[in-house]
Amino acid sequence: MQNPALSVVVPVFNERDNVAPLISEILAALRGVTAFEIVYVDDQSRDDTAAVLQSLKAATPELRILQHAIQSGQSTAIRTGVKAARGAWIATLDGDGQNDPADLPRLLTARDSGDPSVKLYAGWRVNRQDSGSKRWASKYANAIRARMLHDDTPDTGCGTKLFEREAFLDLPYFDHMHRYLPALMQRSGWKTISIPVNHRPRGAGVSKYNNLQRALVGIRDLMGVAWLIVRSKRTAVREL
User: What are the Glycosyltransferase 2-like domain coordinates in residue numbering (predicted)?
Assistant: First the structure.
């Protein structure tokens, strides 16, 4: 199989009932649009997510399955998928079914007609289908992040993203980095664009995080990213 133009990376942990419906939607959205692969990364699920994925592989030639030896979190799962990906561009989706694969062709169209210096097209959930407390916590966190990082991004928590693989792998890696991709891309000298996307109720299962967990981790990460931005240096280079 030749290298695809796009790799869709989906990190999962205990999402056995959401796997088949999401893969079906990815296939419906992208077959006939671009050459693609689907890279699922199982973060040591305690249910039979891996077995469900394996049962779908024979009928889905685009599907690849990776599994962590140790549970390592969403950012590590995304990076694992990106490192293994064969496409020059990466699309990410959360494994819970709340992101709509039907948005991916629109992100690809925006990229094809956009500025080459834009390396990240970030989904923006304009009509979130989460609980009131989760929406309030996200709005508060986004406001603090925007004030500290000046990343001009209304929603960094959306799992729907399209970015260049090479640009991503050049970013500093740390746990929870996936929530700061716009600021990190901008730190590297690239432009980012937010695009409104669909958001849906979770298909099955339960959220893996609560608002307190997100807040405690987010404060420390935010301070770290702000430090990285202040301490960064960029310069043009010419070969002599």
Answer: 7-168
